[in-house]
Amino acid sequence: MITAMIKKELIQLRRDPRMIGLIVVMPLVLLILFGVALKLEPQNVKLAYFDGDHSFFTNLIKTGLWSDGYFELYEVDNKQQIIEEIRSGRSKAGLYIDKDFSALLTENNQPHITFYVDGTMPSLTTAIKYHSDSATSEGVTGDMYFSDADAENVVIAQAPFIMDTEVLFNPNEKETWFFLPGIIGILIMQIALILTGISVVREREKRTLEQLLVTPISKASFVIGKLIPYIIIALLDFYIILGAGWAIFELPQPSSHALLFLLSLVYVAVMISLGLVISLIAKTQQQAMFIAIFIIVPSILLSGFVFPLEAIPDTVRPISYAIPFTYFVEIIRGLLIKQTRFIDLVPYFSALTGFVIVFVTTSIIKFRRTL
Amino acid sequence: MHILRKLKFENTLMIKAVNLTKRFNGHVAVDAVSLNVGKGEIFGLLGPNAAGKTTIIRMMCGVINSDEGEVRIDNMSVDKAKVNFGYVAQYFGQYEELSVWENLKFYARMYNVTDEVRLYSLLNHYDLAQFKHQLSGALSGGYQRRLALVCALAHNPKVLFLDEPTAGIDPVTRKILWDDFYRLSAEGKTLFITTHYMEEAQRCHQLAFLSSGKIVAKGSPDSIKHALGDARVYAASIPYIPELRRSLLNMEGIILVNQFGNELRIVVTSAIAKSNLARKINSVTSIAYSLEITEPNLEDVFIALTQEQPVKP
Lengths: 371, 313
What we know:
Chain A is α/β, with parallel strands linked by helices. Chain A has helices at 2-14, 17-37, 56-67, 79-88, 101-106, 122-131, 138-141, 175-197, 199-205, 208-213, 219-249, 257-281, 285-302, 317-321, 324-338, 342-366, and strands at residues 45-51, 71-75, 93-97, 112-118, 162-168. In chain A, strand 1, helix 3 (56-67) and strand 2 form a beta-alpha-beta unit.
C-alpha cells in the first residue's frame, strides 16, 4: 500500500514538468545567486565629504579612506549637506574636515575631524566604523608630525589629529528599529503574494473560471475587481502589523503619516498586482505557491534588508534594484528612522509606482478571455 | 410541433457554426464542424466521450478559441453576443463559498441585471428558493445543476448552451429539467445541448451525431434514423450467446451487434440477406428464435455511426 502511494505521488510530480523545474532549478538558481551575492563586507560605500582645508594633509586622509575600495568619496558644499546626503540615502557615511585643519595640525594642536555613519542598519554601521580606521592609519599619519628644531621640547600627542565618529539617525544602533520596518514589508509581501497568487488558479482549478469567462466581463473589470479587495485587506493588515510594532516595540513615529500611508498603498498595490501576475502564470495552486516563495526569498536577502546593498557585488546589484522590496526598505527606514524628506524619497516612490504599472499591465495582457 | 415552431419563429438562424476546427497538440479534436440552429429549437449534439462535444460547445461560447472557422450567435460574433447567451458547463462552476442567492446575484450583475424580484421568481421556479441562503457547495448534485441553470438564465438570454445538462441526474429531475427545456424553447429560446443519452437525444428537435470530431449525421430524430442508408436492422429473439456474437462480428457486412436483454439487434449492410444471417445463426446455436427486419432506432444508428470498429468480444 505504501509503495503504491509513493509511486502515485512520484508519477503525479513527474507529470507536472513546471513543478519539476521549480523544485530543481529554483534551489540551484538561488544557491548560485546567494553564493555570489551575499557578503557582509560592504564595498564602494558612498561617502559625502566636506573638506574646508583642501591641503596635502586632508588629501592624505581622503586617500586613506578611498584606497582600500571600501569608500567612494564625493564632495559636498557644507556640513549640513553631509547629513542631508545620508538622510536621503544617497550616502551611508560622511567626513567633515574644518578649514583650519592644516593650521592646527602644523601647530601640533590635534585638530578634530568628524566621521558620520548612518545608524539605520547596525551591521553596516559597524562595518563602516571599522573601515573608517583607514583614515587614521600610519600610512596617513606618518607625515603629520612636526618638530621645530628651535622650539623647546614639547610633548607631541600620539595621534596628530582626532577623528570623532558620530552615528546618525539611530544613535543607539537599535536592532529592532532596523529590522522591524522591513519585517512589516516581508509580512505584507507574504500575505499579498499568496493571497492573490492563488486567486485565479483557484478559479481555474475549481472550474469557476470557465463559467465566469462566458459572461461579458471585461479584462480590466476582472483584473481590477480581483485587485481591489485584496489591496484593502493587505492595507488593513499593514496597519495592524505597524500598530503592533508601535505598541510592542516602540517603533518611532514616521516623519509624515501621509507619506507612510502613500507607501503602504503603493507597496500593497505592487505586491497584490505581482500576486495576480503569478496567479495568471501558474497552472496550479501549488505552482503559484512555489513562484511566490521564489520571489519572497531573494527579496529578503537581496533587498538590503538584512545584508547591506553595499555588500552586494555590482554584477548582482541590478537584481536588487529589480526587487520592489528594496525600495520599500529604503522608504520605510527613511520615514521612520531618518526623517527623510519627500523629495529624496521620490525616486523610490516612482520605482514602486512603476512596478504597479508594469504588473497591472502584465495582468491585463496575460489574462485571456479563454481557458 | 416542428411545423408549428417553424411558423411561430420563422426559423431565424440563431447559431451558425462554419467549419469549426480545433487541434490539440497536432491531434484534430474538432474537424470542420458546421451547424445551423434555428430560433426556438432544441438542438442536440450527440457523441460518445471524447468525440469533441465539449470542445465544440466551448468554442461556440468563446471559452476557447477555434483554430479555424467561425461562430455567429444571433448574427453577431461570439464576443458581441455574450449578453445574448447563457452557458452551463459540464461541471459545477458556481462559487461553492457563496450562497445560492449570492451566486445568482453575482452572475446577474455580470450582465447588469439587478431586478431582484425577477431573480427571486427564477429561484422559485427552479425550486431553489428554499435553499436561498444555503452555500451552493452544500447543495446536492441535482440542485447544483438547477442553480447553474438559473445563473445562466439570470439575464434572460436568447440562446442557452448546456453541456451534458443531465449527466448523473436522476430520472425524475431529468424529466423536470426537460419539461423546462421545452418551456424555454416555447418562449423562443434556442437550446444547444450536448448529450450521450439516447433518451435525451430523442427529445431534441434537431440532432447531430459527432464521431471523432466530425459530424456523421444531422437531422430530426426521425429522419436521422435513416442515416444508415441502405443498411438494415434485424431483431432476433436470442439471449446472450458469446460464440454467436463473436462469429457474427467476424462475418463480412456486419455493422453492429447489440444485445438488449433477450433481444439481439443486428445491423448489416444490404449485401447480407436475411437467409444468410439465419444460416449463420443456425450454425452456432440450435435454439429456436424469430428473426425479423425492423426499424432502426436512434441507438442503432448512433452506435453504428460513431463506433470506430465493431467491438470484438
